[in-house]
Amino acid sequence: MQESTEGGSLNYLSRPSNGKQRVVVLGSGWAAMSFIKSWSESLSDKYELVLVSPRNYFVYTPLLPAMCAGTVEERSIVEPVRSVLKNKGRFFEAKCNEILPEEKAIVACFPEDAGFPEACFKLPYDILILSVGCVNNTFGIKGVEEHTTFFKTVEDASRLRLRVSECFERAALPATSSEEIEKLLSFVIVGGGPTGVEVAAELYDLIESDLSKLYPDIVKHVKIRVVELMDHVLSTYDRAISNYTAEIFKRNGIDLVLNSRVQSVSYDRVTTVDKDGSETEIPFGACVWATGIAMNPLVKDLQAALPEGAQTHFRSIVTDEYLRVHGAPDGTMFALGDAATIEQQKALDKADELFEKADIDNNGRLSRRELATILREASKDFPHLAEHARFLESKTGALRFGGIVAKAFANANKSTSQTIDEELYSKYVNDDASLDREEFQELLQTIDSGLRALPATAQVAKQEGEYLAKLFASQDISSSKPLDLKSTAPFEYVHKGSLAYVGSDRAVMDVPVIGPIMGYFAGLAWRGFETFSQISFRNQVLVATDWARSKIFGRDTSRV
Amino acid sequence: MQESTEGGSLNYLSRPSNGKQRVVVLGSGWAAMSFIKSWSESLSDKYELVLVSPRNYFVYTPLLPAMCAGTVEERSIVEPVRSVLKNKGRFFEAKCNEILPEEKAIVACFPEDAGFPEACFKLPYDILILSVGCVNNTFGIKGVEEHTTFFKTVEDASRLRLRVSECFERAALPATSSEEIEKLLSFVIVGGGPTGVEVAAELYDLIESDLSKLYPDIVKHVKIRVVELMDHVLSTYDRAISNYTAEIFKRNGIDLVLNSRVQSVSYDRVTTVDKDGSETEIPFGACVWATGIAMNPLVKDLQAALPEGAQTHFRSIVTDEYLRVHGAPDGTMFALGDAATIEQQKALDKADELFEKADIDNNGRLSRRELATILREASKDFPHLAEHARFLESKTGALRFGGIVAKAFANANKSTSQTIDEELYSKYVNDDASLDREEFQELLQTIDSGLRALPATAQVAKQEGEYLAKLFASQDISSSKPLDLKSTAPFEYVHKGSLAYVGSDRAVMDVPVIGPIMGYFAGLAWRGFETFSQISFRNQVLVATDWARSKIFGRDTSRV
User: Fold this and answer.
1) How does pLDDT run across B411-449, given as a tens digit for each residue?
2) φ, ψ (nearest 5 deg) of residue B125
3) pTM (2 decimals)?
């Protein structure tokens, strides 16, 4: 460790003197840890790897809902960053407060605590990996910040666990009126995505399996509600899955408050407005905010620090398809995970060339099949077109040489439909539809315009981390040498499917090629997958034994 | 549940209308839970059992030191009160703020939280069981409250766990000077009793087994110190055990700061004074206050509310040998655990009668053997004399009919020596010693004077709880009928031995009859005992698997 005061009053860790490039990674979530895990130890001969994060552990976020119910324990789904890093590099527990792209340095601080002062230091980098994630989005709604429980961190899930227990204890007191009991045992979850659905499901399990025995007199007053803006939950999943979930929820007495947005939240009630504009007040004991993410303030500051015009996106830092941050000198800054969005290469610039190649019969129009074929071919250069090609192929039956394959493709399409706007193709899916040169250009413009908004999921972040580690392994990354694009494949996301637990040992899975799977066996598969996918063997064993423990002995309801 | 407002503005749970006596138990520690566990379900036909405690779970306190190091997890050593209660009675999570002995009622409150107001209620009782424990004693020393970590609760142990992790993370930052590193990695434990020794031992294990791998650069700066007023640690144990512990600690680099008291504590240093009056400043990253307990404020208020002169003890509520609270009408109030002290029956009143019976040879003097014999006989009426009889027997060799038995008694004596003042007998242990009538009276007065201060341990509280539950099972407890003392044996404490973990898989045990056992096998026995002694089968399994988990995978060092 070289320490000096060259940075003025800030303690300063100067650049390695052994000729290594210093790679500073910010964050310890999915993207950062996937990058670290995929980082081969031999790379550390060439680079000095330094991880900086305010959190010294990784959280397996898909099991946070299970944790808030006590089905698994918090210690089982976290893993110390240092255990993952091992000999690959160093870790500093500190929050990055400032990125100085011109100076190629960051400023990070350990906060004031227990009488010990804030400890800040400046850390120069050669290459910066930005994987700091997003923050919660309250959409400016009054009372959300103060009165709801967010659901992004272990602390959030712990807080909810304690809160639910507190609500039951308060409700069981002799001083509690029946009106108050109803309020205390009303649990409102805002957001019908996978997180909201799983929190509702796990809460239901906790109450049904355990709390009903411990609080037999009051358990009948429990009400769980999920508030969702759209007309169905799990809207990024196959519709069959949404319907199945709604059915299970109905059977379990979980109310879906659909087509409704939250107007305001007070300490004990949430006001919703439905699509007709009529207001409803729902009293609650606990309200979970499981919807919406917003830009990390650090990312906002970085946008301003980069050359004007390079970064304009409202929520993320924009990268090219090699995850390089726009506006930063080549080879000095990468971004991935929820903090980043990939800007696609423009296919539009090659519209004419593509059209001519596609129009095999030279009639000046592209048939649906021709369109599908050219999109498939063009996807070699413009990977974002691949999913569009797949979508059209499934509709045209171009590859329908057998029922199974057809179904597979149809399903593959469904499972990525979250990023495809079906409307866009409504006029091309008829057998006799075709489009002329101008229409083709329009279509490309639509596909190209805007950014390729990959979903803000663990899966995307994980693949990006793996991709970036491979990039480091495949060539020298350095500001003195531009990236060798010829030999480098751009990042392409492969959707492996979506999973959600819906309660009563049942889960839903939306798997490409196979399609939607729902029910008890999906529940087993979900459990197996979530156990197997833990970041370490230790976590796998802990989660597996936790599941066994809570099945056998029930969940712990102590308000620790 | 009958609810009414007869108590004025306070919500009021009126007395049972079915003729049952209401037994209100305050607390959820060892005494209360042992009482509840031993309470036979059939008793609930006669009594309405109501438990009130601000904590809705029981903590297996002997494993708190293991928990602070992550060797076992907090959820594994807690058990919800409601799971223990089952069908025996009801539980209200609330803090008893006031006992009204004249009205035979308590007032308890659930504190204000998350916008929900404080919820108070009045609960009339027929019989009150006071088992609220003690609070921490700072002895009025400046800074203890603000800057040290107490070690009584799960929260305390959690706080210490996080604090240690924080100290390591701060020390590992590039901004940290070597002087600061030394300070941050200095851990001071005040109090060389079993708790202090075990905290030091577990911290040592955590650092040695796990943190040394994760923080290899800084671990050499770690220093653990135990500050103790006396000239040896574990002063209530056999001296051989103290010596062994000191030896193990020395080998492991744990410093014993003996003959020293704490003068003051600031946010980063503790000032000690040794017996010569010289001051030492010890900088620290964390300071644990594992010494001293003080009267619970609720007990103080109760003392004042009982008839004048009935309660004058400085630390506890005083009971008779049937655990009945002095000054409260017979059959209405019992106290047990750390909150209570048993006042012994006076043997002095029968001094003459006893002397004549004892003086077999009628020479007006009692030989050592005669003294031992009469104390043994008198112990039928005055149980507190039994340990004195045992002590003398071991010295006189009255029962030395074989080497083994003699050793057994000698050891039995040692293990209870914490309550016997050997000085007292120094003049009677010579073979030719004897005492006259006046000296005998003096001796009895000394033995009788003061209170029988049983140690404030889980073991005592547990036995008292079991005793009291048996008392309820054996006869009707009610204010309308005095206790049938003829058929009722007074409470007698049976010391089963003491245990402490000293680090590196080694433990010390001070077992009656067998004597002191130290070392690796004691470590195995300790682990087995602490697993087996859990309050539920669930906890037994959790603790056992925790031990296996942390042995195999190491302790989790995430700062969750």
Assistant:
1) 444 444 445 666 667 666 666 677 888 888 888 877 765
2) -130, 155
3) 0.85
Decide: helix, strand or coil at residue A89. strand
The span from the CA of A554 to the CA of A201, in Å, is 16
Contact A66, A501 (CB under 8 A): yes
- Determine the pLDDT at residue A436: 84
For strands B21-26 and B127-130, give the pairing.
parallel
Q: How far is CA A126 from CA A95, A333, A467, in A?
A: 19, 9, 19
Contact A397, A384 (CB under 8 A): no
pLDDT for the residue numbered B418: 44
- To the nearest whole angstrom, how far is the Cα of B457 from the nearest Cα of chain A? 22
pLDDT, tens digit, for every residue of A337-365?
A: 999 998 876 777 788 888 888 888 888 88
Interface of A with B in 530-549 (CB under 8 A): 537-538, 541-542, 545, 549
Name beta bridge partners: B269.
Answer: B283
B57 touches A at CB < 8 Å: yes
SS3 category, B344: coil
Note whether A170 contacts B: Cβ–Cβ < 8 A: yes
The tokens describing B509, both together, are 């045990």
CA distance A489 to B500: 61
- Is the CB of residue A514 less than 8 Å from the CB of residue A411? yes
- How many angstroms separate the CA of residue A137 from the nearest CA in chain B? 21
When CB atoms are compared, the residue of A74, A165, A170 closest to B560 is A74
| Contact present, B340 and B130 (Cβ < 8 Å) | yes
Q: Which among A533, A99, A10 is positioned nearest to A311, based on CA atoms?
A: A99
Under DSSP, is residue A70 helix (H, G, I), strand (E, B) or coil?
coil
Chain-chain contact of B57 with A120 (C-beta, under 8 angstroms): no
pLDDT by position in tens, chain B (length 560): 344 444 445 777 778 878 889 999 999 999 999 999 999 999 988 999 999 999 999 999 999 999 999 999 998 999 999 999 988 999 999 999 999 999 999 999 999 988 889 999 999 999 999 999 999 999 999 999 999 999 999 999 999 999 999 999 999 999 899 999 999 999 999 999 999 999 999 999 999 999 999 999 999 999 999 999 999 999 888 889 999 999 999 999 999 999 999 999 999 999 999 999 999 999 999 999 999 889 999 999 999 999 988 888 888 899 998 999 999 998 899 999 999 998 876 777 788 888 888 888 888 888 878 888 888 888 777 767 777 787 777 766 544 444 444 444 444 444 444 456 666 676 666 666 778 888 888 888 777 655 557 888 999 999 999 999 999 999 888 878 888 888 888 898 888 888 999 999 999 998 887 889 999 999 998 999 898 888 888 888 889 988 888 888 888 888 87
Q: Does any CB of chain A come closer than 8 Å to the CB of residue B182? A: no
| CA A6 vs CA A9, A10, A13: distances in Å | 8, 8, 9
Amino acid residing at B246:
A
Determine contact, residues A241/A495, Cβ cutoff 8 Å. Answer: no
Across the strands, what pairs with A293? A136
Hey, what are B346's tokens?
A: 């006076």
- A/B interface, count of CB pairs below 8 Å: 181
B555 in Cβ contact with B209 (< 8 Å):
yes
- SS3 state at A226: strand
A37 touches chain B (CB under 8 A): no
Under 8 Å CB-to-CB from A124, ≥6 apart: which residues?
A12, A13, A14, A15, A22, A103, A104, A105
